[in-house]
Amino acid sequence: MKRYLFLILLVSALLVVACAPVDLNASVPVYETGIDPNAWVTVPAGEFLAGQHSKPTMIDYDYEIMVTDVTVAQYVEFLNAGLGDGTLKVSDDQIVGFYPGDEFHSGRHEMEITAQDYIYVPLNDPSSRFDFDGSAFTVKPGYENHPMANVSWFGARGYCLYYDYRLPTELEWEKAARGTDGRAYPWGWELARNNANFYTSRDPFEDMSSFGSRTTPVGFYNGKTYDGYVTLDSASPYGLYDMAGNVWQWTANIYEQMHYRFMRGGSKDTYDNDLRVWVRSNATPTYYGPGVGFRCLRTP
Amino acid sequence: MQFIKERFNYLFKSTKGLILVAIAMIAMVTALFGMLSGPMAEMGIREVIVRIFGMKLLPAEREGRIIILYHSIAMAVIAIEVYMVTGLLKMKEFYRIAVRILITVGYFLVMIFGLIFAYWGHVWIFHGIYIAGLSLIFFAGVLLCVALWPWDKDYYIQDKDYSRTKKGVDIERMAFFATAVTTVVSSFFGAVPGSYFGNGFEVVLAENIVRFPEKSVLQYSIIGHLHIMLALISIMITLIIGRWLDFKGILHKIAMPLIILGTIVLNLGVWGVATPLEPIAHTIIYVGATPAMLGALMLVIYGWDRFIREGIAGIPKPTFWQKIKALGSDPLRFGPLWQMVFMNFNVSGIGILFAVRLDEIFRVWPASEERIELTGHWHVLAAIVATIILLYYGDLIGLKGKTRKLYGWGIIILSDIAFASVTIFELKRLFISEAVQQPLVNNLMYMIDFGLGMLLVILAIVMVWRLLDLFRKKGRWTEELKQTDLSAEVK
């Protein structure tokens, strides 16, 4: 009987530990990376090797893409502007915006996306990195230069369109990430723990005993050393940062018979194999999570 | 020389020796390649292993590596089942020997050359030998079907306790035959797309394409192949355990036709996914899975009822607890049937929940979450089959007394802790958000690692014991050398 009692106590103790609350507002290290979130680079027209099997693929136009993910500070500025000019609305516990809908093809498992308001970001979600006092948005201290996460595909698209940009297509995203030589990661062919922010990458923002992995500031992996933590310069051939890990990035494509939207790059919550540049994930466009963000693209 | 010859004869000519070799091969592969992913990768052990063994893990080749690794382990598991079938069922000696030689050579070639090709650089000659190994296993399967032909009068039975036709055709043998034939056909179902994608070096993992509304016939074949092969391996081990436990009586008479019907319909449904029948294929699969699972349920009822009866024999008015004690008195016999029941909570039940609430729940989550559910689902089913084999193996090697109980309960409890934790991990999004999940994930990982880790320790102890035993002149192996006919050991 004593043995059973011991087992029951052990399992109970494990469950208690498992249910211990996570402090999502635990203090966050603040580092200035020196990478400008307002910077853009040009990806020239031309052929590149796309996908896992490196298929030669042509993109016959130049385009400019953001050097980093959209940051919390940038998105908060958009939220304030959009709320002020009526582009965005508060609805229940959400910020919503209008979307004109998709053509419906009655595909298997396809969900109809009609013209209506859709969620951009949730309010009162403890994992969001901004606050809202009922009239204005502010960034939670320390997260200004972190990638904006917890944003739906509608919210990502809405941001880009607001400034006359757009989301990159999957191919545009991939070319910007890997250049033309068919590499597996933005920085080359192999991955080390200090190349990117992924699950158990042991960066200074991670505590696997409590809140787990957190986002790192955009451009964090640029070869600098932060309080003794040495990073490798992990820019893509065109100079983009965070094209692998940190947050998944929404892309623009809308595929026939599917309501899912695709994302690229892997995140702080995924194993390293998801950081390979050709790996795709997807979710419903209303989905938001602490590991999903985006960046924008513009054509000259 | 005589020393080596005798051991070789035991390891490669006796039923129990062949099973031991296959289990040892799987254990070594699992121990080595298990260090390349999951917690071992998190802890940095993968980097050490890759460096020590000089592995070449190119990122673009990951999916291909995984496919070859799965096949290497699966072929050894199928070999074990074939050794058991050829040891339990009557057949002509020529076929027994031929099937065993072919499948042994086959899985060795698959395992050795496949894994070298996948993990140590692409030497295409090795890939060719890997394919040759798979072909030998296919041919062994064809020969096994011939050997199991149930309408051969030599195999007719007269005992009315067993399921049979009026003429005496053994319906249980028919079930083995049906499972073997459908396995051979279904392997073809994987070989065709495997060959196609393999030649173009464009591997596809099923879990990465499930959400695409339009899939090619060959992509459907891959999804169907992996599902049906796991199902057939499970059905075959159910039949093996039934034979070992001398399944008979009225439940046997009902169960065997149900398993045959279920197996055939299930296969038709799965093959149907690559045909115009695809829209209704899932319905056909459900129709087939139900009788097959009912047949397994009858085996469980038969076995548990028998264990209780045997355990309480001599007790005038047995209490409920005495019956429970009787049921679990021999974990090696109770375990396989319990694992079949437990599988319903961890695999079948979850699978049905997925199917019923797919769009409302599971497809609202990101694809990466669905991938965790799918791969967890398949891994648990495969691992449950492995534990059933290990439990039966414990009996085959004559474990007795406390060792038998420790080994048996160890495998049952440790594996079930791990499997239950995997199931909670798969479904965690139902009750916890991504932002606050880490402590739960940590604890589940501890339980999974503890369960599987300790189970591997038990297996390692058995393997070391068997290795040391081989150096003894009159070791256990000398007895096992004479015990080729497993039907003499049915319980």
Task: Give the topology, please.
The complex is a heterodimer of chains A (300) and B (491).
Chain A: H1 2-18, E1 40-43, E2 46-50, E3 55-59, E4 63-66, H2 72-85, E5 89-91, E6 94-99, E7 116-122, E8 130-132, E9 137-139, H3 153-162, H4 170-178, E10 225-226, E11 229-230, E12 248-250, E13 261-264, E14 280-283, E15 292-293, E16 297-298
Chain B: H1 2-13, H2 15-33, H3 38-42, H4 45-53, H5 62-88, H6 93-119, H7 124-148, H8 171-200, H9 217-244, H10 250-272, H11 278-312, H12 320-327, H13 331-356, H14 358-362, H15 367-396, H16 401-427, H17 438-470, H18 476-481
Helix pairs in contact in B: 1-2, 2-5, 2-17, 5-6, 5-9, 6-7, 7-8, 8-9, 8-10, 9-10, 9-15, 10-11, 11-12, 11-13, 13-15, 13-16, 15-16, 16-17
Q: Which strands sit side by side, in order, in the main sheet of chain A?
A: 14-13-12-15
DSSP strand tally of chain A: 16
What is the strand content of chain A?
Answer: 15-25%
CATH homologous superfamily identity of chain A: paralog of FGE (formylglycine-generating enzyme)
Keywords:
heterodimer, A: 300 residues, alpha+beta, paralog of FGE (formylglycine-generating enzyme), four-stranded mixed β-sheet, three-stranded antiparallel β-sheet, 4 helices, 17% helix, globular, B: 491 residues, mainly alpha, Four Helix Bundle (Hemerythrin (Met), subunit A), 3 domains, 76% helix
Explain how this protein is built.
- The complex is a heterodimer of chains A (300) and B (491).
- Chain A is of the alpha+beta class and 300 residues long.
- Chain A has one domain (29-298): paralog of FGE (formylglycine-generating enzyme).
- Chain A has four helices and 16 strands.
- The termini of chain A are far apart.
- The model of chain A has no long low-confidence stretch (mean pLDDT 93).
- Chain B has 491 residues and is mostly helical.
- Chain B has three domains: 1-148; 171-329, Up-down Bundle (Four Helix Bundle (Hemerythrin (Met), subunit A)), CATH 1.20.120; 348-491.
- The longest helix of chain B has 35 residues, at 278-312.
- The mean pLDDT of chain B is 93.
- At the A-B interface, helix 1 and strand 14 of A face helix 17 of B.
